[in-house]
Write a structure and sequence with these properties.
Blueprint: E1 2-9, H1 13-26, E2 35-44, E3 47-54, H2 57-77, E4 81-88
Antiparallel strand pairs: 1-3, 1-4, 2-3
């Protein structure tokens, strides 16, 4: 697996909400391009972290790299301070995991 963590602090709540709404409509081709999951963590009224999970690094580089960098540029143009971390990942899933916690895209 490959994970990218995008943290952004926006100048105001409205900018954060606009980006989150835009992301939901633009970054939705799950399963078609190797993106398996996106989690948005509301850190505060004006900041969030977005965690995306990909099949592997090669798939991310092929399908997600350009798209996500363009999206980050848009965040910066709206006045957000953006930081990015990414890397290979391993994980476990609990037996009590409930798929109904997530929206299917």
């Amino acid at each position: 697996m490959y994970v990218r963590v995008n943290q952004a602090k926006f100048p105001n709540k409205m900018a954060k909400q606009a980006i989150q709404k835009h992301a939901k409509t633009t970054l939705s081709s799950f399963g078609e391009n190797g993106r398996m999951m996106r989690l948005t963590v509301d850190i505060s009224e004006i900041s969030h972290a977005v965690i995306t999970l990909w099949e592997d690094k090669e798939t991310y580089k092929k399908f997600g790299f350009d798209e996500m960098n363009k999206f980050n540029q848009m965040e910066k143009e709206m006045g957000a301070v953006v930081s990015i971390s990414e890397g290979e990942a391993a994980g476990e899933i609990s037996k009590i995991f409930k798929n109904k916690l997530f929206e299917e895209m």
